[in-house]
Amino acid sequence: MPNSDIVQTGSFSLRGAPGFDLTHLFVCSEGTLGIITKIMLKLIYPPKMIKTMLVMFDEIEAAGIAVASIIENKVIPSTMELLDKVSINAIEDFNKVGLPRDIEALLLIEVDGEPEDVEKSAKIVEEVCSKAGARSIEVAKNESERNRLMQARRSLFPVLARLRPTAITEDATVPRSKVPLMIKRIHEIKERYNLLIDSCGHVGDGNMHPILLTDKRDKVEMEKVEKAVSEIFDYCIELGGTLTGEHGIGVVKAKFMEREFKKEGMKFFSDIKKSIDPQNIMNPNKIIKTKDIKVDYV
Fold first, then answer.
1. What is the value of pTM for the model shown?
2. Does residue 14 register a pLDDT over 90?
3. Cys-Cys crosslink for 176: which of 169, 192, 205, 206, Cβ 3.0 to 4.6 Å?
4. From residue 189, how far is each of 212, 243, 268 by CA, in Å?
5. 256 in any annotated domain
């Protein structure tokens, strides 16, 4: 804690709800309330079976529709990653995984669990994707093929970073049923501002990662980038989403917090911060400070 006290949150019991959920409060506080010195984790057994599928689409909106339809059919893949044409061509330029360059998008999907459940879920995924307009569906036949397909996703960020001097990775998360709308809006923004924006994400949980590829030395283009990011967040919140699904708020997104939580919510954040860290010594200016912050993208 800011006063050097050590506090343990959570317990080893399967369930428990004694008072406030301090564990989640501190996990999501980004170091503004204290320093985590020890983490106790639960180990889980690996799945008995994994089936990996690569689904190709001629239209990125069709990929978004497939995502929503898979969830509607009560299938929750352990992995469901979206790559658009920018991603696909960048991967092929530098790694040559063997992806077709003429498609607009692909979904990398994995289902796991008990063999019978996996086969049933995989069949539903294939049927749903075909109905949504998938051009083709490739199923990994062994671990070697699975690793080849997974390599496409693993190599994404390093290869995109080679395209422009500055890569700004955002983290707008929407309800899974709204993924098609979010994808469509990102591409509209991309065209309107004439920017190079990669649309990828962990779409199985609605976590979109629009990556704006730019050059921070170009002041005119950076002004367009700022406007594009602002519009992406506004639409994300309009769809019932949130500013971040995993990356956190930090300094860069602090100025957007009031859009999601309004003034009343921001006062709540501030009150918690003041009560736990009245001297503001733990990661000051993160999350709740929304004014007078100079942001430098790296």
1. 0.87
2. no
3. 206
4. 11, 17, 33
5. no
